[in-house]
């Protein structure tokens, strides 16, 4: 009697047991995609292995960030920044970065194309380096064109007096992963500007986070704003860990200014 019932239970369970490995691996895959980090087994040197979607992280030849060393004069035209009235949505602690989402109002023109500002976020310490020098903070202003090409404008911050624009973010800083704070219409007006930027370097690169997609136009602004020690502390406290991907090989790329 016991044997029979055991057998019937096994028979009943068999399809479930067979399904389990499949369910587990699918589940794991989903988790892996979400669970990259900046250290240990899910850190930058493993990004290319933790999900098939991240293959470019290890096989790409135009990866970001880079150490900007030799640049060539390409007589680049100035870039017109039309950030007249930024309509911000919120400031989010994604666990990987501190990000300000933008509803509308930011536009740059590159290669005859309009790129709209979607969000900007921060890395500490900086991701890109100049002549091997790292900076305490780097802002990435992420723009997308209508056909979904990306242009990232990077600002490198030097230690020094506080930055007025950052103060507003520090005041509204979401302190823990998953936290979101609303931003008022006036909160990010310090980032609003309409001007031409002449001094910058440009290169082809990638997203600096999985899936490390390439084909991103990178603009690193030469003029560096400053931030104070306490402003930097606020970012470090909210992020709880460095969030910079290590420098990637330049390979055959040419960096122009
Ligand atoms: Zn970034």
Quick overview of this protein structure:
By secondary structure, the chain is an alpha+beta fold. The chain has a domain at 61-239: Alpha carbonic anhydrase (Carbonic Anhydrase II).
Structure description:
- There is one protein chain.
- With 257 residues, the chain is an alpha+beta fold.
- It has a domain at 61-239: Roll (Carbonic Anhydrase II), CATH 3.10.200.10.
- The chain is built from 5 helices and 14 strands.
- Strands 2, 3, 4, 5, 6, 8, 9, 10, 11, 12, 13 and 14 form a 12-stranded mixed β-sheet that branches. It has a two-stranded parallel ribbon with strand order 1-7.
- The longest helix has 33 residues, at 2-34.
- The termini are far apart.
- Mean pLDDT is 88; it is low at 1-33.
- It binds zinc ion.
- Zinc ion binds at residues 121, 123, 140, 208.
């Amino acid at each position: 009697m016991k044997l029979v019932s055991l057998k019937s239970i096994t028979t009943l369970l068999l399809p479930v047991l067979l399904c389990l490995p499949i369910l587990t691996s699918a589940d794991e895959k989903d988790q892996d995609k979400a669970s990259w980090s900046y250290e240990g087994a899910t850190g930058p040197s493993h990004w290319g292995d933790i999900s098939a979607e991240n293959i470019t992280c290890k096989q790409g030849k135009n990866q970001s960030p880079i150490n900007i060393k030799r640049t060539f004069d390409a007589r680049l035209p100035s870039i017109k920044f039309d950030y007249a009235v930024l309509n911000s949505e919120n400031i989010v602690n994604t666990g990987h970065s501190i990000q300000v989402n933008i509803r509308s109002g930011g536009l740059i023109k590159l290669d005859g194309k309009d790129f709209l500002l979607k969000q900007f976020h921060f890395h500490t310490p900086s991701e890109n380096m100049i002549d091997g020098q790292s900076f305490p903070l780097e802002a990435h202003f992420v723009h997308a064109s209508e056909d979904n090409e990306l242009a990232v404008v990077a600002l490198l911050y030097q230690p020094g007096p506080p930055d007025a624009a950052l103060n507003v973010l520090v005041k509204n800083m979401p302190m823990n992963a998953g936290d979101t704070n609303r931003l008022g219409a006036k909160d990010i007006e310090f980032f609003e500007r309409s001007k031409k930027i002449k001094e910058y370097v440009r290169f082809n690169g990638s997203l600096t986070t999985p899936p490390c997609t390439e084909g991103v136009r990178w603009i690193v602004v030469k003029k560096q704003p400053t931030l104070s020690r306490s402003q930097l502390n606020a970012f470090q406290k909210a992020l709880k860990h460095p969030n910079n991907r290590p420098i990637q090989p330049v390979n055959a790329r040419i960096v122009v200014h």
